[in-house]
């Protein structure tokens, strides 16, 4: 439970406690980047990655890859799940050259390229709306396969269909609330010596799951969270506008929003925010 102390006092995030809630296997990049800036990082996952209810739609699409003109991947998790099924089904790499690939951002692009594939489109902004914008002149009359989480925004399939594309959505993985995190998270928030100065959110799912795990009334109690004291003194750091919008849906105001919607962008935004404020303790409320 104790945060990891490190880095000299001149580091920009020296003595700043930051809670990282990414899935356990994905926390390292954010945690390492924050520690390099001197932060004391606490890792408690708000999200857990599991297999979808069924791989049948995904497998059916992968067995008919020759039908598709475009493959869209919106997360590293989607890349990993897709590749796992490709290997499971014994699909040859030569079958993956018949379509073009769009990745939502640089991390997803890197994961795709690590499998020896070429990414044709990465939008300027790493959100669903920007993916649609990047493909708007490329998909009319085309078959598109979108591999994503079982619960996700419908912006991409809805808007691409309006543009004349035929879109198949295949569930690559599911995200669930890690119930094992509940006691640890609530104990952390109750401890004045360990309470974080920042909580990081890297998706809308991390927001909803955090409130489910930590909130006294759960996420359904929208609007009333503003009256609660359990977040006093904690600044909320969002990876981008979609995640920030979800925070606001629950009456919470992000103190930090990344300009570049990536892990490095989130770290840079926290550093910039910290430099712009006076040194403070977790008893100063900047979260609401």
Shape: elongated
Radius of gyration: 20 Å
What separation lies between the terminal Cα atoms?
Answer: 25 Å
Uncertain residue ranges: 218-227, 281-288
Number of domains: 2
- What is the N-to-C order of secondary-structure elements (H for helix, E for strand)? EHEEHEHEHHEHEHEHEHEH
Category from helices, strands and their pairing? alpha/beta
Name the beta content range.
Answer: 15-25%
Major beta sheet, specifics?
Answer: 5 strands, parallel
Tally the helices. 10
Q: What average pLDDT do the residues reach?
A: 88
According to CATH, the fold-level topology of the largest domain is Rossmann fold
Oligomer: single chain
Helix content: 25-40%
Could you list some keywords that capture this structure?
alpha/beta, disordered C terminus, Rossmann fold, 10 helices
Question: What report would you give on this structure?
Answer:
- The chain is 34% helix and 16% strand.
- Strands 2-1-8-9-10 form a 5-stranded parallel β-sheet.
- Helix 1 links the parallel strand 1 and strand 2.
- The chain has 2 domains: 130 residues, Rossmann fold; 126 residues, Rossmann fold (3-Layer(aba) Sandwich).
- The longest helix is centred in the first third of the chain and has 14 residues.
- Helix 5 packs parallel to helix 6 and helix 8 runs parallel beside helix 9.
- By secondary structure, it is α/β, with parallel strands linked by helices.
